[in-house]
Write a structure and sequence with these properties.
Elements (H helix, E strand, L loop, with lengths): L1 E4 L5 E4 L9 E5 L4 H7 L7 E6 L12 E5 L17 E4 L6 H6 L1 H22 L3 E7 L23 H20 L3 E6 L1 E3 L9 H10 L4 E4 L5 E2 L1 E3 H14 L4 E6 L5 E2 H12 L5 E4 L14 H7 L7 H14 L3
Parallel strand pairs: 3-4, 3-6, 4-5, 6-7, 7-8, 8-13, 9-12, 10-15
Antiparallel strand pairs: 1-2, 11-14
Helix pairs in contact: 1-6, 3-4, 5-7, 5-9, 7-9
Length: 326
């Protein structure tokens, strides 16, 4: 690992010497959390076209990165960007577990139908592969065997999980019927720099600790999750999209280590030097009790594994939260 100065002059960790290798990526939702982590690491020789319905909050300004402000569902508006041989990384989603429950129909319209339109265009345009970022928690639901492997039966217990599962199923059909190469990345609970939404326990904890605001916990706080550092996820996205050319495969992207919610909050208190004011609320039916991912498959096939310890990742995240105003 080397430390670099990013486009905003902030010090950060680069997880590889430099992500490189002349290729062309089309990244939907690339101005979001994981997309910005990915773009901030790629080399100058990689051409990236970012399709996003909103202008980026923190644009990565490099000559080979171009932003197209366009709703991903309006495929005809950017079809010409899907040139043969491109790798399409589909990160765009305007949903999260709590929101999906309140707007199931629009969730289907925006995310399921939007992804189907994109995938059909990928077939027609002859892209090299479609990489879809799914959920490493919501699609699995409650499982009796932990860590959870990719072979586990999918048992979503939320509308958000059902939406992600539906997309995966339709992509499997498009691969079967049309031969579209598809890789599904089921990502654990990602955290780290460039996170500006109200989702993600660790980033939310740190922002509220910074502002001395109360922290809400639904349930007893013993829910166990697999927390994975966003730059590590970015490297997984790169490795898979660089090397995946055919077939339909699913890969978990996680650490294989579970941590309880209140345990994580205590770790955040240690890193920040602050004490949390916690408000506990009744547990929600959509919250999974235990979710830890078995990521041996991606390690065996592509050599990926997390490179940054949980403690180091927390420290780096806190540095980033302090540097930026929300």
């Amino acid at each position: 690992m080397v430390r670099v100065i990013d486009h905003l002059g902030k010090s950060s960790i680069m997880l590889v010497n430099q992500i490189s290798g002349a290729q062309r990526w089309v990244i939907t939702g690339g101005s979001g959390f994981l997309g910005t982590n990915f773009l901030s690491q790629i080399g100058e020789d990689i051409e990236a076209v970012v399709i996003s319905r909103e202008a980026p909050v923190w644009p990565v300004r490099r000559s080979q990165i171009r932003y197209v402000e366009q709703d991903v569902r309006e495929v005809e508006a950017y079809r010409n960007e899907l040139i043969p041989g491109s790798v399409v990384v589909h990160m765009a989603s305007n949903s999260y577990p709590g929101k999906a429950e309140k707007a199931i129909e629009s969730d289907i319209q925006d995310n399921v139908l939007g992804t189907i339109r994109l995938a059909q265009a990928c077939v027609q345009q002859g892209v090299r592969a479609l990489i879809f970022l799914s959920s490493g928690g919501a699609v699995y639901g409650e499982q009796s065997i932990v860590p959870i492997s990719e072979n586990a039966n999918l048992r979503p217990i939320s509308a958000y999980g059902a939406m992600k599962t539906s997309i995966e199923t339709y992509l499997a059909v498009l691969h079967h019927v049309h031969g579209l190469p598809v890789a599904i990345l089921r990502v654990g609970n990602a955290f780290g720099p460039w996170h500006h939404s109200s989702q993600g326990a660790i980033n939310v904890f740190m922002r509220k600790l910074q502002k001395d605001e109360p922290i809400e916990i639904w349930g007893d706080g013993k829910q166990i999750r697999d927390y994975v550092y966003a730059p590590d996820v970015a490297r997984a996205i790169y490795i898979v999209s660089q090397n995946f050319n055919s077939g339909f495969e699913v890969f978990n992207v996680g650490t294989g280590q579970g941590r309880g919610l209140t345990e994580v909050l205590k770790s955040c208190e240690l890193v920040t030097g602050k004490r949390a004011l916690i408000h506990f609320y009744e547990a929600r039916d959509i919250d999974i009790r235990v979710n830890v991912l078995d990521a041996k498959k991606i390690q065996t096939k592509f050599g990926w594994q997390p490179m940054v310890s949980f403690e180091r990742a927390l420290a780096e995240t806190w540095k980033w939260v302090q540097d930026f105003k929300f």
